[in-house]
Write a structure and sequence with these properties.
With 255 residues, the protein is α+β, with helices and mostly antiparallel strands. It folds into 2 domains: 126 residues, Alpha-Beta Plaits (2-Layer Sandwich), CATH 3.30.70.1890; 117 residues, 2-Layer Sandwich (Alpha-Beta Plaits). Helix content is 27%, strand content 37%. The protein is built from 6 helices and 17 strands. Strands 1, 2, 5, 6, 7, 8 and 9 form a 7-stranded antiparallel β-sheet that branches. A 4-stranded antiparallel β-sheet has the order 13-16-10-17, with helices on one face. Strand 14 and strand 15 form a beta hairpin. The longest helix is centred in the last third of the chain and has 17 residues. It is globular, with a radius of gyration of 18 Å. The mean pLDDT is 91.
Length: 255
Amino acid sequence: MRIKLSIEHKPNEKLIINYQYLISSWLYSLLYSRDSESATWLHDRGYEYKGASYKHFCFSMLKPKLFKLHPKEGVLELVEGPTELIISFNAHKIANDVINELLKMNTIKLLSDSIVSFEGTINNIEVLQAPVFTDNMNFIAKTPICISVGDMNSKQPKFLSPEDDNYPEAFARNLVNKANAYFGEEKYRVEQVKFSLLSSNNKSKLFSIKGIKVRGYLYRFNLSAPKELIEIGYYAGFGTQNGSLGMGFCEEEGN
């Protein structure tokens, strides 16, 4: 399930440029208000498989009507609203808990350690229509996709570029493990997934979370796999850092 929020706010509201983890924290606060035990489980453990944890949700970048970037200050200025945010859930219970809390609270607060913070009123919640899933689809990354090898908790994980020869297998392995974690069994295999890069001008983006640098890429790609597996990637997010930074949020190309 995907929901689109329309957020009204004062003109010229400001946020830190790397605001993504603030959205994640806000979402967990909503879940905790609804079901503290479930929220704690999702944050601390989530869906586990082969030593990795998957949250099965992601989110888009904020999309204001008009904005300005202030790189020297590290600030994003939301000049004019409304501002849109899309949240994507593979697990329906999580989606329903968030929606119920939004209907009750209808506010969003993104607070950082600095003096820069953001507050708005959610004046519309729209459940978005799902695409028609098939076993062969083209996607475009709307937030960077992060594929890494090695331990993500180390200070120097290796982040792969989509042009890397090892990228297709690493992409497929992440998706398969994510799905198998959700089902609690080894339902899918890496050999069932074929990743094909469609773009050549692929943009690299660097994020920081808890002192760890995370790199992802924006690009277009084709994915051939069982349609249930593609659907999981679409809703849960492709690659890593989906729930923490919203990475891997993609849309079907042409929609």
